[in-house]
Specification:
Blueprint (H helix, E strand, L loop, with lengths): L1 E3 L2 E5 L4 E6 L4 E4 L7 H10 L7 E5 L5 H4 L2 H8 L2 E5 H9 L10 H10 L12 E3 L4 E2 L5 E5 L8 E5 L4 E5 L2 E2 L6 E2 L8 H13 L4 E4 L16
Parallel strand pairs: 4-5, 5-6, 6-7, 11-14
Antiparallel strand pairs: 1-2, 2-3, 3-4, 8-9, 9-10, 10-11, 12-13
The protein binds zinc ion.
Length: 223
C-alpha cells in the first residue's frame, strides 16, 4: 500500500516492511522473515524497478521477523546495510540482540524456540548514531528507542512527519500500543521511548506489526 507518495507498506500476514522510493533509488526499512523477501522482490518489480535498484536497507532491531530476509535481499541487490551498533553486532552474529526469557508457559516455549530465532549473519556497512539524519527523502532521522530490544531505533521522515516505529509500538487493530510482555527486553525503557516518540507528534505511524496509523499525533501511547 502506498500511503503517501513514494512510501509503501509491504504487508505479510504478520509483519510489515516499508519501501521508500527516492529520486535516485530504493530504501527498505526492515525485511520481515526470509519468506517475506519474495513479496519485497514482487513490490519492487510492480513499481517498475529491479532488486538491484535497492541501495540501502535500514534495520530497526534484530528480531528474525525483521531481519530474516536480509541475506536473500543483500545477495540479490548488493544494498548497503545500516543498523545501530548493538543490534548490528547481533546481525553480524546471526542471532537476536537479547535473550527471550519469558515467564510460565512462555519460558518453556522460548526455551524450545530460541534456536529457531537464529538467521544467516550479514555484514553491517554503517553503524547509525542517535539523532543522525540520513539524506533520504528530505531527511530520515534516527531515533533511539530502547526497550523492545537493547538498541532498537525508529526512523522519522521529517518532511512528511512519518514515524517508522519498528516494534517500539504496535498497531494490531489500528490502535497504538507500547511494546510489552514476554518479548520486551525492558518495559520501563519501552515506556520512556514511547514518550520520546509521542513528542515527535507524527502524522503517520508505521509499525512492524499492524496497520499504518493516520492522524497519529493524538493517538500516541505514553503508558
Ligand atoms: Zn521485535
Amino acid at each position: 500500500m502506498e500511503f503517501i507518495p513514494n512510501v509503501h507498506q509491504i504487508e505479510d500476514s504478520f509483519v510489515n516492511a516499508y519501501l521508500i522510493v527516492t529520486d535516485r533509488d530504493l530504501v527498505l526499512i526492515d525485511t520481515g522473515f526470509s519468506t517475506n523477501a519474495k513479496h519485497i522482490h514482487a513490490k519492487i518489480e510492480e513499481l517498475g524497478f529491479t532488486t538491484s535498484d535497492l541501495k540501502l536497507i535500514l534495520i530497526t532491531h534484530t528480531d528474525k521477523d525483521h531481519v530474516g530476509g536480509l541475506s536473500n535481499l543483500i545477495r540479490a541487490s548488493n544494498a548497503k546495510l545500516y543498523a545501530s551498533r548493538f543490534e548490528g553486532e547481533a546481525i553480524q552474529k546471526g542471532e537476536p540482540s537479547r535473550p527471550l526469557i519469558g515467564k510460565g508457559l512462555m519460558k518453556l516455549i522460548y526455551r524450545f524456540t530460541t534456536p529457531l530465532s537464529k538467521f544467516p549473519p550479514v555484514t553491517i556497512d554503517e553503524f547509525l548514531s542517535d539523532g543522525q539524519v540520513l539524506e533520504i527523502a528530505g531527511g530520515l532521522r534516527v531515533i533511539p528507542t530502547p526497550g523492545h530490544t537493547p538498541e532498537h531505533i525508529a526512523f522519522f521522515l521529517e518532511e512528511h512527519e512519518v514515524l517508522f516505529a519498528g516494534d517500539a509500538l504496535r498497531a494490531p487493530a489500528g490502535e497504538l500500543h507500547i511494546s510489552s510482555g514476554a518479548n520486551t527486553w525492558d518495559e520501563a525503557k519501552a515506556i520512556k521511548s514511547a514518550k520520546v516518540l509521542a513528542n515527535l507528534k507524527p502524522k503517520i505511524v508505521c509499525c512492524g506489526h499492524g496497520r499504518v496509523v493516520f492522524d497519529a499525533a493524538d493517538k500516541m501511547p505514553t503508558k
